[in-house]
Structures are given as structure tokens and as C-alpha cells.
Amino acid sequence: MTDGSHENHGQVPSRQRRRFPGISSRAYEHPADRSALVALRKLSGFDTVFKALSGLLPERSLRLLFLSDSVRVSDAQFSHLNDMLRDACYILDLEKVPPMYVSQNPQPNAMCIGLDEPIIVVTTGLVELLDEEEMRAVVGHEVGHALSGHAVYRTILLFLTNLALKVAWIPLGNVAIMAIVTALREWFRKSELSADRAGLLVGQDLQASMRGLMKIAGGNHLHEMNVDAFLAQADEYEKAGDLRDSVLKILNVLPRSHPFTTVRAAELKKWSETRDYQRIMDGHYPRRDEDKDTSVTDAFKESASHYADSVRSSKDPLMKLVGDIAGGAGDLGGKLRDKFTGAGGSGAKGAGTAKGDATDGSQQSPGPEDPEGPSAAPGTAGS
Predict the structure, then answer these.
(1) Predicted local confidence at residue 280, as pLDDT
(2) Are 60 and 184 in contact (CB under 8 A)?
(3) Do the beta carbons of residue 203 and residue 133 sit within 8 Å?
(4) Low-confidence residues of the chain: pLDDT under 50
């Protein structure tokens, strides 16, 4: 941050919060976010679409649209949001404060879009739903998107989902475009987990982050809701049912741009209890001036390690079965057939007695339970 950059931020946070000078987005990015983005970039046809749309998307038109039909946050308008925005940029050391708009829409939502420079947009439904500390986490979430460079891919996703499928002259067939849209959604769901972490680093209030997610799921009836019970839903969601339910979970999440809210809450709470989070809060984190020296191989290893840990600790029936197979428990095709058809036992009883019924030497051991809470469900931290 330059000496004059403090003028952009205007003031320091309204209560004492830790600041992270020069922090790299690598400090808070979820391993699944980085690996999904690499997979997206390798998708056949993505480079062609990306280059074409980068020149076609009306960036100036987009900015003029919000300037003309939304309220721009400033000292004169929504000043409390302006203070939060400057606070968030100050804490994450984002030198240029992105413009922020409030758009009339009863649906609670926020987004960070733009190709050349990010724009943050929040809806009136979200502003009216959240209290100050909950909203601070959301603003930090969007500033995290900006720092990570997510805005450009989010803009392309919005364009493809809203317009490209209706335009016949796009030089790709509908199937190819849908493949790219699906891959973009998969990446964006992962990027939300990263941005949730950025929101926690800005707000530095886990309970406020939890309340905000709970309100987005259940509305402004906080006296009727409980954070612990809400997190228990995530645990029940992950481990409930059989393999058929696991497949339904995957199908349910595919059309979504965001992970399920209970899963986001559980993932964020889990991260807040890790040594990585504590090291950041203690001032030990990757810095932007080191990004150019970052090893891609190390990033791949971290992502692979994350997926392996997720499979090992997951309570989801499909993930536990994959873990058993990877551990040498037996034949995947046969196990899947038995689970779906009930061969060797029916329902939960058949699954529970599979270990004792094994006669081919492929005795399996039960998958380990995660003492810290649920790991990511399929479609949110790896698929």
C-alpha cells in the first residue's frame, strides 16, 4: 500500500480489528477453489469463449447501467456501507476501493463483477436483512472476490447463463456452452468458500458470519433460529441417507451458483478452528509480493491433499465408500451394485453388516469420523 492510499480508505475500522498488510489471496483461498479454476481453464473451448467474450462484453454499458439505475454507495448515500467497504479494503490492503452499488431487489444477494475493474453490487433485500456486523462479513466476502480476481469469471458466467444460450451466432454449440457453464458454476461454488473466509478475516466475528448465513437461509427471524442447530443440519445433510441420496445431493447442487448455506457455515466454522486461520490472525500469511515465486506444483499438492482428507473424513455414504475402495476394501463396481440393489443385505442394515459378510478377504474397516464437524459435501469442496 502506498503512503497516499490511506486517503482512499478514509478511516480505520470502527472497532479494533487486525489488519493484514500485503496479504495474498492465497492465504484464504480454499484448495478446491484453486483446483476447480485450473480445471476450468483446461476445459476444451474455454480459452476460445473467454477471449471472444472479453472483447464482446459491454463493460462500459454494465457500469453505466448500475450508475443510472442503482444507488452508488458514498459518504452521501448509504454511508454506513461506505464505511464498511473502506474498512474491508483497509483490512485486506486492497489499494483501490471498488465502486459499490445498492440495487432494488427483495432477493438477498451480493456480487462482485467486472472485467477491467471489479464492481460490488448488493441488493436492498440483503441490506434490510442483515445487521451491521453480519453485513460487514458480506462486504468483506465481496472484497475477497475482488482481491482474488474472481470478478472476471463471475461476469462471464452471468453473461453465458443470461444471454449466450439465446444467441445463435456464438461459435460453439449449446452442448459445449453448457459444459462451460457447468464448469464455471462448479468453480464459482468453490470460490464462495474462499470469499466466506475473506469475510471472516474482515469481520473477525465468527458468530456474525454464522448468523448472516443462517438469515440468508431462513430469513429475518433470528429469535426463532439457533446457530448450533443450523450447523447440526449440515452434519445431518452430509451423513444422512444412502448412496442414492449422495447422487441426489450432487444433482441438486449442479444448477446452483452457490453451495448450500448449511455447508458454507460448516466449512467456515471448521476453517476458523484450524492452525492456518490462527497463523493468519497472528500475522503469518502469504504475501502478494511472493505470488510470482509461488510453486504451481505445491498448489496442486495442497489441493490433492485436501481432497484426500475430505474423502477420508467425510460422513457422506458415497465418499465413505470411495475411501474404503481407495483403502483396498474391494471392488468399486461390486460395492456400488450391492449398495444400490441391496444385495448382501437391504438398506442400512446391509451396509452395516457388509464388513462381517466379506468372504473374499476384502474386509473393510469403517471410515473415520471427523471430530471437528462435517467435511465438504459433494459439489462444494470436490466432486
Answers:
(1) 97
(2) no
(3) yes
(4) 1-13, 168, 242-246, 249, 295-296, 300, 304, 306-308, 310-311, 314-330, 332, 335-336, 339-340, 345-383
The model's pTM is 0.70
Region at 93 (left for phi over 0; alpha for psi -120 to 50; beta for the rest):
left
Q: Residue 101 has what DSSP assignment?
A: E
Dist. CA 376–CA 259, nearest whole Å: 10
Per-residue pLDDT reduced to its tens digit, 163-206: 555 554 555 556 666 777 777 888 888 899 999 999 999 999 99
Amino acid 181: pLDDT = 77
Terminal CA-CA length for the chain? 38
Rounded to an integer, what is the distance from CA 183 to the centroid of its chain?
14
The DSSP call for residue 169 is T
Q: pLDDT digit string (tens) for 3-39?
A: 444 444 444 445 689 999 999 999 999 888 877 777 7
- What DSSP line would sit under 103-134, residue for residue? E--SS--EEEE-SSS-EEEEEHHHHHHS-HHH
| Rounded CA separation 358/381 (Å) | 32
The catalytic position among 29, 134, 142, 238 is 142
Cα–Cα distance measured from residue 364 to residue 97, given in angstroms and rounded to the nearest whole number = 55
Question: For this structure, is 142 an active site residue?
Answer: yes
Residue 380, classified by CB atoms within 10 Å of its CB into exposed (0-12), middle (13-18) or buried (19+), is buried
Query: What distance in Å separates the CA atoms of residue 34 and residue 294, rounded to the nearest whole number?
Result: 13
Q: CA angle at residue 208 from 307 to 148, to 5 degrees?
A: 50
DSSP code for 287? B
Maximum CA extent, the chain: 75
What region does 111 belong to: left with phi over 0, alpha with psi -120 to 50, or beta? beta
Picking from 3, 144, 14, 120, the residue whose alpha carbon sits closest to that of residue 72 is 120
